[in-house]
Write a structure and sequence with these properties.
The protein is mainly alpha-helical and about 170 residues long. Helices cover about 85% and strands about 0% of the residues. It starts with a helix and ends with a helix.
């Protein structure tokens, strides 16, 4: 806002100095930095029709008209972005606290985890599909890549031994 106010104020003051003509509307809206900033604020907040503030600038230059329109456009979209961001943030927070969403998220993660474990055990077995012997598990645990897969799934190799003993009984 400050940069736009400087541009409009400087243009208005230069115009009035060059033409030696005092325009009350131009001076009232754009005659000083404080007046320009207030005019810009009023234009975007509904305190003043921005068309009224634009008319004195039209006497100076079409570039100022376009610049003022760019200011209005950018400011409205900035405000719209903030409002949209607040709305989306609120909706995301509400969805994150929704029990149904939490339960579905847990179920999805469990399914994904189970699929990874199934794929890992499918890759482990060399003999009968769907089963693994102690020797096959020992061979797999000595393989660094497969040990890393266990760790990535959150299963320590000691846990893998415990799991085998539990499943074997």
């Amino acid at each position: 806002m400050y940069v736009f106010a400087i541009i409009f104020t400087q243009s208005a003051v230069d115009y009035m100095a060059d033409t030696e003509e005092w325009d009350p509307a131009l001076d009232g809206f754009w005659g000083g930095l404080e007046a320009s900033m207030l005019t810009l604020f009023k234009s975007i907040s509904g305190g003043l029709s921005w068309h009224e503030a634009l008319l004195p600038l039209a006497d100076i230059s079409r570039v100022l008209v376009w610049l003022f329109c760019v200011y209005i456009f950018l400011t409205y979209f900035e405000v719209l972005n903030v409002v949209t961001g607040v709305f989306c943030h609120s909706a995301i927070e509400n969805a994150a606290n929704d029990p149904e969403v939490l339960v579905q998220s847990l179920v999805d993660r469990k399914k994904e985890y189970m699929q990874k474990v199934k794929n890992l055990f499918k890759d482990l077995g060399t003999g009968d599909p769907g089963s693994i012997t102690l020797e096959e598990l020992e061979a797999c645990l000595s393989n660094e890549n497969l040990s890393a897969c266990f760790v990535a799934l959150g299963i320590d190799t000691d846990d893998a031994w415990q799991l085998f003993k539990l499943l074997d009984t």
